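Make up an example, fold above all:
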Amino acid sequence: QVQLVESGGGLVQAGGSLRLSCAASGRTFSSFSNYVMGWFRQAPGKEREFVAFINRGGSEVNHADSVKGRFTISRDDAKNTGFLQMNSLKPEDTAVYYCAAGQSGGSSWRSYRYWGQGTQVTVSS
C-alpha cells in the first residue's frame, strides 16, 4: 500500500500564502513518478471538490477555475513529494485539503486510490 502524509495547513489572513506538502511512501510503492497526483478540498457541509492535478511526467497540470491563477500544483519525484502552493488566499478557500495519488487520475476524486489524512486550511477575513 501507499501512504500519503500531508503537512503545511494552518491559519492565514486573506491575501496570504501557504504551501501544502504530500510525502508518499509504502511497502508496495514502486515509484512516485508512476502516479498521477491530485489535490481536493472539502468545506463544511459541502462535497469533496477538485482543486488541481498533475500528470505522471508533470507536463500537464489542471487547476479548478476557482483557484486558477492563485494555486499551483507541482511535484518532486526524486523526493516522492507533491506540493500545492496557495497564494492570494480567500476566506472561501477554507476547507480540509486532501492529497491523492493513483495510476489514473484527473478531476474526479473517484479515480484516485490513495489519499492523505487531510490538513485544515483556514483563511480569516
About this structure: The radius of gyration is 14 Å. The longest strand covers residues 18-25.
